Amino acid sequence: PECNVTFAPEELIRYSRADISMAVSIPGGLITPIVADAGGKSLSEIATVTKDLIARAQGGKLKPDEYQGGTASISNMGMLGIKHFTAVINPPQATILAIGAGEKRPWVMPGDQLGVATVMTVTGSFDHRAVDGADGARLMSAFRSYVEAPLGMVA
Predict the structure, then answer these.
(1) CA-CA-CA-CA torsion sign (33, 39, 40, 46)
(2) 128 is annotated as an active-site residue
(3) Which residue in 51, 61, 83, 128 is the catalytic one?
(4) Is 121 exposed, middle or buried (0-12, 13-18, 19+ CB in 10 A)?
(5) How many CB atoms lie within 10 A of CB 19?
(6) 8 A C-beta contact, residue 78 and residue 119
(7) How confident is the model at residue 26 (pLDDT cuts 50, 70, 90)?
(8) Is 124 helix (H, G, I), strand (E, B) or coil?
(9) What is residue 120's three-state secondary structure?
(10) Tens digits of per-residue pLDDT, 36-57?
């Protein structure tokens, strides 16, 4: 919750609902449609909403309230094979996650055995006027926990 904020000139605005903007490439640029109340949706609902928003964004059929606002952003270049990048914060938001491609890498498994794991790089960018670095680190740690044990998101 500490990262779900907006830095305004006179105040720090904290949001109880996570409206997540997602970067979508369209002819001539980028648009950020919003998955409204993402925290209140199941993974299957988020997948359905995401597919619909992307299709309508690429077709130029989004309404302004579907791409204006948002409390934090996600940018995924992993689908293009980009392993690592740093996303630029989308003001007035204070948080954006940059999702890189998953790739097979040697990994030390439980029991100190060497194995192969699919590993991806995720980079968080935070406006430190609004988000303390320790809070950003806790967000990244929570994200990692969910990605490494995804069944926890459906239980």
Answers:
(1) positive
(2) yes
(3) 128
(4) middle
(5) 17
(6) no
(7) very high
(8) strand
(9) coil
(10) 999 999 999 999 999 999 999 9
